[in-house]
Amino acid sequence: MTDAAPARRTYSYLGPAGTFTEAALDQVPEARGQQWRPVHNVGEALSDVLEGRSDAAMIAIENSVEGGVTTTLDALATLPGLRIVGEYLVKVDFVLVAAPGTRLEDVTVVAAHPVAYAQCYGWLGEHLPRHQHVPAASNVASALGILDGSLPADAAIAAPGIVQHHELELLADGIGDNDNAVTRFVLVARTVAPAPPTGADKTSLIVELPEDHAGALLELLEQFSTRGINLSLLQSRPIGDELGRYRFVLDADGHIQDERMADALLGIRRFSPRVVFLGSYPRADRRIVQYPERYADDVFVEARDWLRGLIAGEPEA
Amino acid sequence: MTDAAPARRTYSYLGPAGTFTEAALDQVPEARGQQWRPVHNVGEALSDVLEGRSDAAMIAIENSVEGGVTTTLDALATLPGLRIVGEYLVKVDFVLVAAPGTRLEDVTVVAAHPVAYAQCYGWLGEHLPRHQHVPAASNVASALGILDGSLPADAAIAAPGIVQHHELELLADGIGDNDNAVTRFVLVARTVAPAPPTGADKTSLIVELPEDHAGALLELLEQFSTRGINLSLLQSRPIGDELGRYRFVLDADGHIQDERMADALLGIRRFSPRVVFLGSYPRADRRIVQYPERYADDVFVEARDWLRGLIAGEPEA
Amino acid sequence: MTDAAPARRTYSYLGPAGTFTEAALDQVPEARGQQWRPVHNVGEALSDVLEGRSDAAMIAIENSVEGGVTTTLDALATLPGLRIVGEYLVKVDFVLVAAPGTRLEDVTVVAAHPVAYAQCYGWLGEHLPRHQHVPAASNVASALGILDGSLPADAAIAAPGIVQHHELELLADGIGDNDNAVTRFVLVARTVAPAPPTGADKTSLIVELPEDHAGALLELLEQFSTRGINLSLLQSRPIGDELGRYRFVLDADGHIQDERMADALLGIRRFSPRVVFLGSYPRADRRIVQYPERYADDVFVEARDWLRGLIAGEPEA
Amino acid sequence: MTDAAPARRTYSYLGPAGTFTEAALDQVPEARGQQWRPVHNVGEALSDVLEGRSDAAMIAIENSVEGGVTTTLDALATLPGLRIVGEYLVKVDFVLVAAPGTRLEDVTVVAAHPVAYAQCYGWLGEHLPRHQHVPAASNVASALGILDGSLPADAAIAAPGIVQHHELELLADGIGDNDNAVTRFVLVARTVAPAPPTGADKTSLIVELPEDHAGALLELLEQFSTRGINLSLLQSRPIGDELGRYRFVLDADGHIQDERMADALLGIRRFSPRVVFLGSYPRADRRIVQYPERYADDVFVEARDWLRGLIAGEPEA
């Protein structure tokens, strides 16, 4: 045979098998039948992409209960050369499990990944008010840790599927405080031109403010509001050099090739000491972006034509 | 002779000779030795231009005491095809004159052009509190009217030079309420490309608001303030169809070819149901326009380059 | 006689009989049967009030075509001790009259009060494009002036009723450019407590801006918009000391005893170097003021109670 | 004995001894010699206060590198009846320790409290790029866990003092990514009247926005900026019911008894569906709050006097 088989693509994700991240990757049609590479943390996943070991990485970016995933946001803010190319939602639910024979009233220490722990906080406060929390590395590791004794806990919060793979006592299910809890994942690749607009797009940015006062944030938000652009995520993150200095992670409805979004990006670039464009990509929910008619593309195009005519000295129509 | 003499240019102005308008036209180097055409009102001056009888018209547009000259502003708002090409300032001062033999204490009726009257209002209130006002057509006509008896008045407000041309008793001089009173004139031609920027330019606009509430005016003003552009004139004028509907006449510091001004004009065009661009032209005072460094041309150019790179998928510098 | 007759009240107005101002005064029930005092100008009318010769003065403040009446606005801005206590609307219409035997095609000079002239400007441009304008002191004086020869004109713009009182040729009627033209008058008294709110009130203010840039006007307008208050009049007036410095005359929907208006007034007072409160009074059109529910009085009261509780350390409800 | 000994006060804090939280409590003069009650998590500390087992609880609220402590912020947002009464700063620094004999190049799994982990992320990426993270319950538990084998790790991130209490190999010190890293703690009591202003105060709030768009956040921020109030903390937190709905945790410079702050609180209360006032208390750094003169207390008082005079009909001064 003279023709080489097409190279398989590699996708990094937070493993092991069974995590919510794997469930997100499972939603990517192009990833089926390709190489899936489990990694230990977000930094490793993004390094895989930047250094060519992977073509893309699936990482959790926001949770409906916990908010932005801070390690992800901080990594995206500081590592150049990356771009988000897709968004995926995974519904999250939790169970409380323990070694066989354990009873709920015996539990004093609960192993749980911190994000999972936060999402079950209300339930725990009601049913185990005196519990102590031991953080686990993942929703799988929490359960494994109590089974093999590597975590000093007598119960674990885990994803529901865990009881099918391991011999565990199900102490309680549906313990998440919010029935609609969902985690948002993004697929990240090396810098690439954004895919064309679909009408149902999202644009992600990280913006540093020029000065540390409320006025600067006002000015940032106005760049969107004065162009009819809605924000679906706004998360402050400390820059880290001193208390009171923040960068903002934003998801804005629309695509960089939409006139109003391009105009907003220009305004932000002129104003901010540092803007990271993370990408324009189709929304997971495929919901068409609505905006006031006055911010439609043709309004921008018409205004530019008008301005050109004025400068040329053409009579007005 | 084989060579045709160059055609003389014609300039319309509010006559007769001796008006402040003539003094403004006197400041225009290109108008020297050309044809000066005195007219009776602003409408006639602008018709001369629009219908080709004149190349340009000098008209008063604003007075430091009285504000915008409303007939001028309304004419510019409604007559398409005109453009301001120059700005000129004339210092204004007034005298009170009467037929020979008249004494100040005898005066009961004062003839005066309404704008001149308003500028001497304080002085009249102090010295002639019971006077009655008879409007005159100009600062020359007021004095002539009391001399020939065509105006039922016993004194007139006029420009100081009047006593050199007519036999009049000078009852008081320097009667203007403000020593720094000045009238601003503009030279208006048919639509033409704006002259290149000089760094000391002004841009004049008339803008109708989309709705009749304060929010719309806020939005208009923000188009300038968010781009570091100062306004030197802001005059509301009723659109005239009902109480409470206004258009706004604006003078903004800068030139349509300045990036920040072009961007502001685009924003206004997208937002307003009707914008009249009256022109970008050198300021009478030749004062260089100051603006924050963040609104400099190269900041706009750099941002556009950045945006192009993002869309193309180029790695960030 | 033991019983003193009640003192008659005196009302000053711009005379003579037959002016639009008299028609406005005619709408005031309390003025019927009282003393009406015709005066020559707005300054005289306001002096009558300030010096006790009159109890109140009726003056024109705004015209739907011409905008604010500048002499009125400037007088109210500079004379302390006055307050608006009522508002009245008079529909305005105009006729063109001349000495018997005159034909329209013979007219070359038109006598007219400047405001009336401006309101017929379109009609004159169409039917008498070459006319010259001679200003008259009032809509009555214009007609009398051509009859007695005291005004050098061959036609006059006047109010329709003029032909019932004088022998004049009616050259044209309905010559006003706008069928809905109306003039707004206010009744002005010495400083007095505002009448209680009616639900259909208006508050008039004159505000100087702290600095001469657009940002200050933005801040003024936000005092209203952030409290759901609509503006029905916004008129810039030069302060008069130099070009580019303005004060603003505002009519805002609502009453000083409405919580949202009181709060806005506090904000304006803190921000402006000079605020003149002209009064809160019932609207001429008796239209109930609409505003978003979130700016209702009880929302303000509830917030104050909440704040008091916080400071006192009371447990939250 | 006739005299009762004064009751000892009880303070809850995140134990065990040696945590940064204990170092914060150590800064409270009133807590010396009183009862210190170590607890396992923030929820337990706040329950102690609410249920009367403790008089106050010391909890971490913000870290200069990691931002707001989300479990603390979410607990304060949802538990009524609490108030912040003091603020304390603790400088944070970290070491990497291991069982005696371990070498840095042997380390593959690092135990660390998630917040500590995030603060050493850069150092770990450089020196241990392939490491895996095992979360520990505290900066003390991480080290104990590797000593007693309860955590499956071969090194631990801990506070520097750890090596004085336990036999550990110091693999690296000063591994925090930021030399100025500091954690901010607050002392929380049951609802009580705020202590009087000191001039160097801070006010903490949690505010829900009326709608899920940028405009609502703009309006919130304007409540501060239009009164000259600076924000030192602004942290978004998901409300948790669905993606895209946020509450905001704010620290504002000033005290509830400052006029400008009281006025801002009133504005926020009127606008927000839910405001939690967490308290006004002295700043840890004792820095006097600076603000523009136009927002001084006497400006507010003067404006209220003026308004009262207007309503009473008093002549203006």
Report on this model:
Four copies of one chain form a homotetramer. Chain A is α/β, with parallel strands linked by helices and 317 residues long. Chain A is built from ten helices and 15 strands. Chain A has three domains: 1-91 and 183-192, D-Maltodextrin-Binding Protein, domain 2, CATH 3.40.190.10; 95-173, 3-Layer(aba) Sandwich (D-Maltodextrin-Binding Protein, domain 2), CATH 3.40.190; 193-317, Alpha-Beta Plaits, CATH 3.30.70.260. The N and C termini of chain A lie far apart (67 Å). The first copy, chain A, is elongated. Chain A has helices at residues 20-25, 42-50, 70-78, 114-119, 121-127, 141-148, 162-165, 214-225, 259-271, 297-312, and strands at residues 10-14, 35-39, 56-63, 67-68, 82-91, 95-98, 109-112, 132-135, 155-158, 169-173, 182-190, 201-208, 231-238, 246-253, 274-282. In chain A, α1 (20-25) links the parallel β1 (10-14) and β2. In chain A, the strands form three sheets. In chain A, strands 1, 2, 3, 4, 5 and 11 form a six-stranded mixed sheet that branches. The model of chain A has no long low-confidence stretch (mean pLDDT 89). Chains B and C meet through α2, α3, β8, α8 and β13 of B and α2, α3, β8, α8 and β13 of C.
